[in-house]
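The protein record passed on below.

***
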Amino acid sequence: MTLAPLRLFANAKEVAVCFGVLALLFALHVSVIYAQYQSFTQEGRAYVEGELLLSDARLSKNGKPYHVLHVKTKDFTLYTVAWKETLHVRPGEKVSVYAITENLGFSDFLSKRFFTPSFSLQALRQSDEGVAKQLSYKIHAQHESPKMQALFSALFLATPVPKDLREDVLFWGVSHLVAISGFHLGVLLALGYGLLRPLYRFFQNRYFPYRNATFDLGVVMLGLAFGYLWLIDFVPSFLRAFVMACFGFFLLMRHIKLLSFGTLALTVGVILVLFPHLVLHIGFWFSVFGVFYIFLYLHHFKDRFSAPMHAVLLNVWVFLAMNIPVHYWFPLTSWQQVGSIPLSIVFIGFYPLSAALHVMGLGGALDGVLEPFLAWRMEGAEVPTPLWALVGYLGLSVLAIRWRFLAVGIVLLGGVPFLLL
């Protein structure tokens, strides 16, 4: 007989105490960051050292050349502008710069990704290059096109996406596929578990039949995922997905109900206590919304369809459900974005295949198809979601936990931006 999963909270009092403690810890962590902010801004300027991640050459409205720079330090990512036609530093090099902090707000500092004016950009002596940098060179060497170099560096090493590639990604609606996040972690964990399980079973049946295969392989896969997280320098989108995976694994091993909205709320609370800056990251909230709508689908329909039908319906469901929130921040709308539904399914196979091709030195084998595919365009238009519509939609989404017809209704609302084209 299979035991029913335990409830996360026994009563409302436990809920209040738990989230009260999380709120207190969050406030304490933010107060520590505020002290760091005061120290960083007290002189009006701050000396910053870091790695130049991206240098995007542009022209002002007056035709004056400048470069948009992304400088990553151990504590934050600084965006700034260099009003020069030619830079003497390249992405990947160590640089120093004086950031002007007089008008830097605390919310910007808290986000760990902010813009400041700067001056005196200088190249620093290079230290020994790490594994990620060497892998980046190997990826670039397998592609002739700068766009393909940027695409696969972003896919595997979470490097910044240049403007031209970012526009391609927005038109196709596949930003969630290019930015390393929970989707990638899910593919990697599922693939790794599927490959290791038969080998583990072979040895388990002979030498340690008393061991729990789910626990042992889960620990191994999370350990490998942490190694990858370290390799890409703890990218926030992958970091939050990793924390959620670890917390979910803990609940699973404790036989506590995993697919519940209470579990999601607690996971979000724990992540924000550990990483308060994520409260200001829209990517974090997109991932939360995405998981919420997956839970909403499973809550109402998990026992109603076959596994292949779930694979199709769930992708359509999440695409439509996320449309209204996404269009508040990214109003570009095109029928081309509907292609993200089959592309999300295809990506499950494409991601490990492209990784295997790069390991074999054949990473450029698909460039002839990928580059024109990404550059293809359908007509698009700006269809923004008003703030009142976003707030109302999210409120109805919470109510939809109770009523299935409401869940279906709000998801169908996701098609409205296409009807307005």
